[in-house]
């Protein structure tokens, strides 16, 4: 991956719907060059998929929870794999410190959050959870641009 690939990625992070021709014009490259580089980045799994950024609150997901998970013994990976299957889970992070895993999840209502947290306790090898409810979101954008 070189500087041109980085530029392509940064432009796609801003607008993944732009055509290769538009991107080529912005970068001063040929359309064929841009297309072949994008295909190379996709094949290398650097570009894994294309998506949209949604305002979750506007579609009803007004609650964001950050949940710490403490797993039993060496069972962290299995717990993280199980948690990753839940639809409303946005991120699962294996971390350092006294907590094993941090998850970020979105919910429409408090009762959904309550049910989710209680369900975490039923997952084999989950020893403890600590739930934090986000009061205000100042920034939520995982694009590195």
Automatic annotation (TrEMBL):
Q: What Gene Ontology terms describe where this protein resides (cellular component)?
A: cytosol
What keywords would UniProt list here?
DNA-binding, Transcription, Transcription regulation
CDD domains in alphabetical order: HTH_ARSR (cd00090)
Which example biological process does GO assign this protein? response to amino acid
**What InterPro entries has UniProt attached to this entry?**
ArsR-like_HTH, AsnC-type_HTH_dom, Dimeric_a/b-barrel, Tscrpt_reg_AsnC-like, Tscrpt_reg_AsnC/Lrp_C, WH-like_DNA-bd_sf, WH_DNA-bd_sf
Please indicate if the UniProt record lists Transcription as a keyword. Answer: yes
Concerning Pfam families, the annotation shows: AsnC_trans_reg, HTH_AsnC-type
Record field: transmembrane: none
Stored PANTHER family: LEUCINE-RESPONSIVE REGULATORY PROTEIN, TRANSCRIPTIONAL REGULATOR AZLB
According to UniProt, the name of this protein is AsnC family transcriptional regulator
Q: Which organism is it from?
A: Candidatus Nitrosopumilus sediminis
